[in-house]
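Please annotate the following for my students:
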Amino acid sequence: MPSTGVSSPPAKILSLDLCSDWLLAKYADRSQVVALSPLLKQYPVEWIGDEWPVHNGSLEQILKLKPDLVLSGEYNAMLLRQRLISLGVQVEVLTLPRTLPEVIEYEKRFLSLVGLPSSLASKPAPAKPTTKPSRLLLLGANGVGTGQQTFENDVIKQAGWGNYLESDGYNRLDLEQLITDPPDAVMWSAPKSPALANQFAEHPALRHAIPQQQWLSSSYWHWQCPGPWTWQLIEQLREQREQWAG
């Protein structure tokens, strides 16, 4: 029988990083996945259950699982994936999107690799322009704020907010400046933990300068990896902006 030119979907997929874990748990059939990365146990999310197997990150165990496709992020497990490639294992590196338009292409490439139709990729709603966007501070652990020229900044603006920070990148915030010129709202984006890293946000002076009703929150994991949940986060931020403005 002549070949149709259509390759079969990979039957044994393995992930080396957290973002690939989440995409597989979101889209792939459980029977396709031989193991997710050990990072899944370090950074658990409530929507991924215990039925997903996890490997220990060793070359020996991965080879025993005999995956026909290994997925990795560009910054993860570099030596391990090079070793796998040298042994003839198919490794595909998913470059993380740095802009919102790239998220859709990121999803489509993943879907193509695992044998799913690109039509499953997200179809985000267009941004609604605002004449004078309110200033939102995205505050993370250790008093670090997210500024311009970041993926998170694109998320903030797509949701109709303005970014409180005018500088680029990730900046350690000055408490006195925040108290003198407070943002209109703060999105507290850090893991729930009593760690010292979260004490900046709990400083009494900051809480006095920015009333409780101006503190917003979202699930921390939404900000960790770009993906289909990014559009859910944008919609949540839009709704919070409308409630805040109302």
Strands lie at 13-15, 33-35, 69-73, 91-94, 135-139, 144-146, 162-163, 170-172, 185-188, 215-217. The domain at 135-245 is CATH 3.40.50.1980 (Rossmann fold). Residues 228-245 form the longest helix (18 residues). Residues 1-6 have pLDDT under 50 and may be disordered.
